[in-house]
Amino acid sequence: MDQYSYIANADVDYISELYDQYQQDPASVDTSWQNFFKGYDFSLLYGENGAGTPNGNGSANGQAKPADAGMIAKEGSVLSLIKAYRSRGHLLAKTNPLGYDRGVEARLTLADYKLSEKDLDTVFEAGHFLLGRAATLREIMAALEKVYAGKIGFEYMYVRNMPEKEWLRNQIEKAALVFDPTKEEKERVLKKLNEAVTFEQFLHTKFLGQKRFSLEGGESTIPALDTIINHSADQGVKEVMIGMAHRGRLNVLVNIMHKSYDEIISGFVGQVPEIEEDLPDDINFGGDVKYHLGYSSLHVTPSGKEVSLKLAPNPSHLETVNPVVEGFVRSRADGIFDGDYDKVLPILIHGDAAVAGQGIVYEVTQMAKLPAYTTGGTIHFVINNQIGFTTDSVEGRSAIYCTDIAKIIDAPVFHVNGDDPEAVMFASKMAVEYRQEFNQDVFINMMCYRRWGHNESDEPAFTQPTMYSQIKLHKNVLELYNEELVSRGKVDAQLAKRMESEFKQFLQDRLDGVKQAEAPTFHPLKLDEDWKALRYGSAEDFEQSPATGVSREILDEIFKALTTLPEGFKPLKQIDKLITDRKKLLAENGQVNWATAELMAYGSLLLEGKTVRMTGQDVQRGTFSHRHAVLHDSENNSTYTQVNHIREGQEQMDIYNSLLSEYGVLGFEFGYAMANAHALVIWEAQFGDFANGAQIIIDQFVSSCESKWGLQNGLVMLLPHGYEGQGPEHSNARPERFLQLCGDYNMVVANLTTPANIFHIMRRQLTWDFRKPLVIMSPKSMLRHPLNVSPIEDLVNGGFREVIGDPYADPKKVKKVLLCTGKVYYDLLEKQQKDGRKDVAIVRVEQLHPLPLKQIQAELAKYAKARIYWVQEEPKNMGYWSFILREFGCGQLDVISRKTSASPATGFLKTHSEEQAALIQEAFA
User: Which residues form the Transketolase-like pyrimidine-binding domain (predicted)?
Assistant: First the structure.
């Protein structure tokens, strides 16, 4: 017995049990089954050979006799066939415009279910489960073929939420049978196809060989996006954020985002744009290629609805933009739409090779339903070219479909033929309605092709000769759709020709105008009004930090919240001790430790009406159990966030333990910060070097977004760093990598040694009237160092201290100055104090970039005759030395460090201790 026969027999048993149950109590079974069995009893009594006679299927007294096993088996087979079409009909669907099959047997023939052509005209009550009535097998098969084996292949039977599955089935089986776009809808599709096709052909003929990553072969993307945006606006969406790579981006910019054709054409003509807003002379705005840029606009739908559109800028790293878009949308939902996800919609446009091959797609998909990262559902639109750069799909993925990633979150997939724009429209509408109804992700896999190579100068026939010989002869979708409409008598054939002619002339006029015009103006992605009030920071802003102190009265108010628990809340004993120690430190010594100062910074911002959000794998307690921002009741595991209970009406801190992801989470938080100018958004790595997994986000967004795209961002990254003998992967946050990325005052890199400085640097992020990313090499063991405390007055007065001098050394005696940063300071301090070395000064550089050279030189001027050394725990080829040497110039100072190494640190505690002792000894030699 094969698996399909087993399914059929299982259904027979199930139906028999239900039928017995129905005969005993009809109300005990579902209404649909009641209708089925009523119809079945009626057919037994009055159907062919029935008529209530002893010779038929009825009985002499006119009562239906028990159903015979043979007929129940047939009904079960038909029911199994319906179920199988719902599960595997997509394997038969005609979704590929090039006609290739999937190489997977669908097993949907009559014989697979012990049925034959002799049964085609038999009436089956199983028709109730498809057509709502008893029907012949012929009618049932015709409906199944039309719904499930047409130009759309539906995958949804794996959805485990029954209301969602029922909704999908009803929409698919009812709407698909009667779907017929209105005349206005057909004309709009024709118009958008004309714009898409003509725009690509125009660029191809006018700028032959220039890279544009055309949409040719997938032009139905434009009417699809147009449908999604317009239909979502009718469903209540006010804002749409789109993320996509470069294929088709120029077409989307002009035909969806309303960017002017002049601006696009000028990029091909070669004019260098002026910058819309003046940047400081010391910031180099390098810009980016035309198919990476973002844009924003206001769109008015055919029904008169207004919807704000944003297209996120994106680098060539495919799919990297995905978490950024999701974070942006979440931030807008939280801050603008009061948590109403129905008002803001993320759309991610994927390529088939990328959605299958890029790991970030999995990370973002896994984030979709998590409380910290949900955005109320994303519409994923796959432009399925059936090929990667030059890689065939059979070499690019193990899955049948590139969209099989959807199954991990039970997201339905609509596979649709890109040569059928009406089918694409149907899938797009249903995707919007599903997303708005259930706030869940949904995938549209538009099967199409790529008319040219990876870019327009490539020759794709080198690697896919047979495919491209077919593509060469294949008509474009505009021609095919126009022919279809004309054959149906729906649209005048001259309409499409007139559209094409008028649009070509329009583009030519734009080209002629651009050639005569002055250089265009660069317009970065527009955000909200809050960002317009900010300026770009420059060199002068980093000479000295602004005042960020907070009054003692407010600090006392915050401190009270940090040392108070609600009545009946029973924390662990360790938490009780932590609160007691926190009180004691302030009461007896007038001091606060690192965790207290950090939480007080957040509390002060909340009282000022600012947003504070923190995520990371252990952030609620802190990886090193220092923060304890979220407390757990030891008896019922309820939680309490003290900083959210300072006073009535304050803002709330959102602090979430993240999934085990760096790439996706950092991208999400960058997007969140990008959407809110007044949010302190923090990502804390479990260990600093785990940021390696997010290096693409760091390179492509964090360090360079201002230079490439004119976008500011105030994201904070906390990267635990410090040598305590924990091995190569738990010691070094790779500060050298961040310092290599520094230029044009693009971001701040710091390594702090006092609680007051963590307090002030966090507040400085939102005190500045500009925004810069902040990377902190944050402490580990130093969190509990007895000297790592600050007087409460240091939080009241002044601001962040970029450089901290040495109050102990005697300037007249000093022969050696040790410049350092971070935790090594306390090791040096211990040696200095123990040996009474007033002849060695220790100067802390708390901010590495922008390097406060004037402040450093002012400190060094106190020790005119001293020799200067840079001291670091890291190997000589790592850490800060290369950066410091470049900034100071060769010959001005020497280095004391571990020797050059391929690995960041030793894995043996004994070796570490010996190395550390030798390093400190050399510093004081």
Answer: 592-785
